[in-house]
Amino acid sequence: MSIGMNHPCHSDYSFIPIIFYEDRNFQGRHHECMSDCADLHPYFNRCNSIRVESGCFMVYDRPHYLGHQYFLRRGEYSDNQRLIGINDCIRSCRMIPTHRGSYKIRLYERPDMGGQMQEISDDCPNVQDRLRMSDINSCNVVDGHWLLYDQPNYRGRTYYLRPGEYRRYSDWGGASPRIGSLRRITDFN
């Protein structure tokens, strides 16, 4: 059973970029989503597989884009637990818009854009080695969309940042100011 087109996660397009399935291997009830959805719970109780037909998405284990964040690009995720380490509790999703321009992020060692500032315009697999900073307490995403990771080499918990100011690490959902690596979101195929 799929959900109709007249709910908050849909617009009037015939192509659906992301489909959530209650069971593994794309089985059971499913929910088709075209855009950001702050609360997926009314549409399904559990999610064990996901198909991303187009673009990139962040999915969250809590409503309103809170909790653990997981980055998904176009592809099939037949078993969420095994393939991306997420349990069956997907409660919100955010579509990442395509960006065709430069990338720039300013990282600050203190809250409220204070202390030492480093500006980055490319991927950084190891923040400590490259910037001599391990704690990022605030940042300003000037251009593009970025992923922060709490460990080097794009590992560990992931945080999605879109353009704007993040005055404290909790603004991007961080549990601590420790950031190990960061990368631009450039691959939308």
TrEMBL record:
<dbReference type="Pfam" id="PF00030">
    <property type="entry name" value="Crystall"/>
</dbReference>
<feature type="domain" description="Beta/gamma crystallin 'Greek key'">
    <location>
        <begin position="16"/>
        <end position="54"/>
    </location>
</feature>
<dbReference type="GO" id="GO:0007601">
    <property type="term" value="P:visual perception"/>
</dbReference>
<keyword id="KW-0677">Repeat</keyword>
<comment type="similarity">
    <text>Belongs to the beta/gamma-crystallin family.</text>
</comment>
<feature type="domain" description="Beta/gamma crystallin 'Greek key'">
    <location>
        <begin position="55"/>
        <end position="97"/>
    </location>
</feature>
<feature type="domain" description="Beta/gamma crystallin 'Greek key'">
    <location>
        <begin position="103"/>
        <end position="143"/>
    </location>
</feature>
<protein>
    <recommendedName>
        <fullName>Beta/gamma crystallin 'Greek key' domain-containing protein</fullName>
    </recommendedName>
</protein>
<dbReference type="GO" id="GO:0005212">
    <property type="term" value="F:structural constituent of eye lens"/>
</dbReference>
<feature type="domain" description="Beta/gamma crystallin 'Greek key'">
    <location>
        <begin position="144"/>
        <end position="186"/>
    </location>
</feature>
<dbReference type="InterPro" id="IPR001064">
    <property type="entry name" value="Beta/gamma_crystallin"/>
</dbReference>
<dbReference type="InterPro" id="IPR050252">
    <property type="entry name" value="Beta/Gamma-Crystallin"/>
</dbReference>
<dbReference type="InterPro" id="IPR011024">
    <property type="entry name" value="G_crystallin-like"/>
</dbReference>
<dbReference type="GO" id="GO:0002088">
    <property type="term" value="P:lens development in camera-type eye"/>
</dbReference>
